[in-house]
Amino acid sequence: MTTTAEYTKPLPTLTDDNRPFWDACRDKRLSMQQCDGCGHIRFPINHICPRCLSEKFHWQTLSGRGTVFSYIVFHQVYNKAFAQDVPYNVALVQLEEGPRLYSNVVGVPNDAVKVGDSLEVVFDAVTPEITLPRFRLAGQASE
Question: 66: exposed, middle or buried (C-beta count within 10 Å: 0-12, 13-18, 19+)?
Fold first, then answer.
């Protein structure tokens, strides 16, 4: 989707805590923390489980499937780095496994996105270290 030389938008700061998430994305896998105490899959990344307070977890690869829980289309420039993208959507994706993740629905016009739409993850390698998880409508052909 994106060539790394042209990517000038804000990027996450890699830390020891979030590196497994970004490494999995680079490997085209969506992976999140799963509590070893109660099995809860959590996002955002945290040192303790919000359900049982256990500090023990492992990184679990998820299906990459979800639905549009909510979304908005930005028609105004709030950050100059995104000026050429306006209008663009930001969706809150309800993942099949439970967590919600903010991302974009790609490959369709903004007015084609609807709450409840089935989605599947796609990966956008924007730099050698960062690959962003984005979503497309389920069953849509790869770009």
Answer: buried
Residue 8 corresponds to which tokens in the numbers above?
Answer: 């000038």
Q: What is the pTM of this model?
A: 0.90
Beta bridge pairs of residue 74? 88
Residues 130, 142 contacting (CB under 8 angstroms): no
* 3-state SS, residue 89: strand
At position 11, the amino acid (one-letter code) is: L
Helix (H, G, I), strand (E, B) or coil at 120: strand
Residue type for 101, please? Answer: L
HEC readout, 37-83: CCCCEECCCCCCCCCCCCCCEEEEECCCEEEEEEEEEECCCCCHHHH
- 122 within 8 A of 134, measured Cβ to Cβ: yes
For the chain of 143 residues, list the mean pLDDT of each consecutive stretch of 10.
71 96 98 98 97 98 98 96 96 98 97 97 96 94 61
